[in-house]
Each structure stands twice: as C-alpha cells, then as structure tokens.
Amino acid sequence: MPDHQNGLQVLQEPDPGYRGQLLDVVAVHGLNGDPVNTWTHKGSVLRSSTMWLTDLLPEKLPGARIMTFGYDATLVGNTSTGGVQSNAGVLLADLKYARERYEGKNRPIVFVGHSLGGIIIKQALRFAHDNETEFSDIAKCAKGIVFFGTPHRGADAARWANLATDIAAAVFRRSPSKFVEALRENSEDLMNISEDFCLIASNYAIFSFYEENIYTSLGKVIVEQTSAVMGLPNEEAMMLGGNHSSMCKFKRGDRRFEIVWRHIQRAAKGPLR
C-alpha cells in the first residue's frame, strides 16, 4: 500500500502470466479525499479494510496496471496554490513519465474520477488533446472515463462543508479551500472546462455514477443527478448506492463493485456506439 503522497503512484502491475489485452487504470480522488482512503472501505474489525483498487480490481482485470493520483484537496487549511488546471498538468506529466518508465505506451487508458477528480481528468484530457506533440500517446490511448459523483455543473458551497468534521466545517465557513469556489454551482471555471471537454467527449466511453443516498448531516445528496450527469450522447448514467463519500468504497462481495469493474472493462474499448 503506498504512502498518501501527492503525484502518480503505481499500485499494481499486470499479472506477468496474463496474455490478454493490457490497460492502464488511473484513479483520481476528489475534494477532501486522498489517493488511498477515497477508495478504501473501512471494516468494523481491525485490519479488515478493503482498498478495491489493489484488493479487488486486479482479480477481475489481471491485465491492468493500476495507478492512483494524489494532490492537496483538503477542505480546510489548504495552503497549496494549485488549482484544477495546474493539477491536471501534473497528472498528465506524471502519467507520461510512468508510461515511458514502465513501458506500455500503447496501452488503452481508463480514468476513474471521484467528485473533483473527474473535473481534473476532463481538464487533463483537454490539455492532452491540445498538446498532442507532447502527450500524443495519452491523447491517442485514452479510451474511457468512469465518474463517481462528479459535479460537472457544481454544487452549493454549503454542501461541501458536510465533507469536513463538525469542527473543521466551522473553520471551513471562514476559510474554505480554493476548490470550493471553483466547484460552486455553474461557476465560470466549471462551465469553461465543460465546454472545452464537450468538444472532445465523443472520443471516450463515458460512465457517470450518481449518488443514491443522502448525506445524513445535510439531509440531501452532495451532488445532484442533474450535476453528476452531463447528458452526452456517448454517456451512460446510473445511480449507485452510497452517499457522496461511500459510493466509491467497496468491500469484497459488494454487488456495486461488480457493476463498477465491468464498466471499467467496457470503458477500455472506447466510445459507446
């Protein structure tokens, strides 16, 4: 299990005995998340946690190199000057280096994004498309995206406060992360990113999961279906059990994981027809 550090980390290489299609899976966490806990189901018994990217997905997709990207997405006390665009740039540069260093530049790429992570992925793909000389293999090999509760049209800032603890939420109201402003409902940043992405969206298979359950402290979902679904012709949308935080955490035997890994597998084939 990797440290909770920023940047791209390779969690799992393909099974050396696997002779089928190889692929790269890149997971990007969201607001107030990190590259490990965002994808980890905490069990009630000590040491019974499940990090599905390493504990479950390799069993289903033995040909996958699985990576996770970390950045400072804390809600309170965030001193990073990096925003969506700068983190998207780091993601691209790290991924390019990883694919050169560990070989396999022609592998299909599937991106998995939770919340804000999905916005960073969209921006990174637009950058790759606009800079094909530098990121030609990423622009060519990116085949699909799986979104979990990504606020394509934003959400009211008060909703994001519920992702912090009670004490942190009080501080949040005085000094929220810069990402909160970017994720406000129909913010200019979000609209620009969405408009730019729509120009290249037909290049990808897109699966958008929206949250089924309310956030108890809020009494409603964090990201509404109308924000989590873009309404694109090549997008398949589906409600997924869990609230905004738990919808991307699975334990062994969870039927939601069966749905998710099959969508990752399908995304590697490229645009939906």
Automatic annotation (TrEMBL):
Compartments where located: Endoplasmic reticulum; Membrane; Mitochondrion
Alphabetically list the UniProt keywords: Endoplasmic reticulum, Hydrolase, Membrane, Mitochondrion
The cellular component terms of Gene Ontology attached to this UniProt record, alphabetical and capped at eight, are:
endoplasmic reticulum; membrane; mitochondrion
Which domain of life does this protein belong to? Answer: Eukaryota
Which intervals hold domain DUF676?
25-154
Please name one Pfam family that this protein belongs to: DUF676
Molecular-function annotations in GO: hydrolase activity
Identify its protein family. Belongs to the putative lipase ROG1 family.
Please state what the protein is called.
Alpha/Beta hydrolase protein
Natural source organism: Podospora didyma
